[in-house]
Amino acid sequence: MPAFSRSEIVAALSHALDLTEGQVEGHAGRTCVLGMRLAEDLGVAPADRAALYYAVLLKDSGCSSSAARMSQIFGADDLALKRAGKLVDWTRPSAALRYVAGSLVEAGGLLNARHTLRVALEFARDEVVVDARCERGAQIVAQLGFPPSAADTVRCLDEHWDGKGRPRRLSGEEIPPLARIACLSQTAEVFVTSLGRDAARRMVRKRRGRWFSPEVADAFLAIPDADPIWEHLAEAHDPGVVARMEPDPEHEEAHDGHLDRIAEAFAQVIDAKSSYTFNHSTAVAEYAVAIGRALGEDDAGLLALRRAGLLHDIGKLGVSSAILDKAGRLTDEEFAQVRMHARFTEEILGRISLLAEIAPAAASHHERIDGGGYHRGLRGDAIPQGGRILAVADVFDALTADRPYRAGMPIADALAIMRSDRGTAFWPPALDALCDIAHGLPPRGEPAGASPIPRTAAA
Ligand SMILES: [Fe+2]
Ligand SMILES: [Fe+2]
Q1: pLDDT digits 0-9 by tens, 404-457
Q2: 102 Cα to the center of ligand 2, angstroms
Q3: Residues facing 4 on adjacent strands
């Protein structure tokens, strides 16, 4: 298998993270362009710039963990909440309260001072929301094999110069230098994109010495109007442009094993998006491979099935957790949004050259043999075989996995239900294969490394 560019795949997947933050697509890429420029102006060494590069692209890997909790607290769409929240100065109680009140009104609630205050306090104290992004994001970056300074940058990018940031309230020189750059870059990007560069400069001037290191703030304020960076920012929605900016060629080359690690890490990001899908993507990958093996797939086919299983629900990052976690019946409009996740999966994976070949199968996991599924309504053999296998694996896991509100169904009961849809929803060969092997499957949620699924030796 040929080597590939790790920056290409990370830059492309950062678009999926933009979705889950409710940001204009390319937010992470533009933050990266800005961060690279400030790092250069501040004389940061190439190896450290590379750590900053990956940290900024992956900075929101922990965000899906906070999405479910945020929509629970506010009873509203987490994507809109996060989008609006990026323009707010949290350290000012009046601004934070205005944001909470505005979000409640937008969610259709009546404005009530006591309720607003309660939500604001609950939000301010909620450690899941506050810590998940930083800690979880740092863990994912470390798991991907990036240097400790990259993980540390993600952990500390919401720390503020005056010690009022999060999660550890570090101040001044205690904050790692790369995190100081990342902190300014991510906020300035949102202002430049939403309100223009003058508004961004006003914000940076106001928060200089409070949120931002004076040195980093001054470097940003020194960038003149005529500087090419502003045009460069406008091009950064294209992951190819961002991928080519990797500052340290030593990190450029990657191998097939890296791709597996990235897929495994993103499976965790995807599963954290909803409180009900713990380990779902990993389990679907395991089941799909087991079915594929029973059907005689070769190693290359099994590897593709595994990756498609790990990433089949990546499009869920673009759907609000308020809908994914809704306890009651979905309205038609909400169901239409849920169905969109399969299309998003195809779009996200289709853009990444090394994953494009698995995109059609991954995006077909809700198609039915009788043509009544989504997102294309394909029928029979028109559904890629990988998609027909994933559809069986997906439903089997949904029925048998333990959920917060109920225990998983016994395997025999799940198979009985699925058999009643043999040939209508499910492709008979895949369903029959599952029925043959289901009772011998390894326990759900075993770490991928312990599974017999083929992975390339290169790491
Ligand atoms: Fe799905
Ligand atoms: Fe799924």
Answers
A1: 777 899 999 999 999 999 999 999 999 999 999 998 888 776 544 434 444 443
A2: 34
A3: 254
> How far from 338 is each of 221, 335, 445, CA to CA, in Å?
43, 5, 25
* CATH number for domain 4-63+130-254, candidates 3.30.750.24, 1.10.3210.10, 3.30.1490.190, 3.90.70.10: 1.10.3210.10
Q: How far is the CA of 365 from the centre of ligand 2 (A)?
A: 7
pLDDT tens digit sequence for 137-189: 899 899 888 899 999 999 999 899 999 888 889 999 999 999 999 999 999 99
Neighbours of ion ligand 1 (CB under 5 A): 313
For domain 256-450, the question of CATH label 1.10.3210.10 is answered with yes
How far is ligand 1, taken at its centre, from the CA of residue 100, in Å?
Answer: 32
SS (H, E, C) 111-149: CCHHHHHHHHHHHHHCHHHHHHHHHHHHHHHHHCCCCHH
316 is catalytic: yes
* CA atoms of 451 and 292, how far apart (whole Å): 15
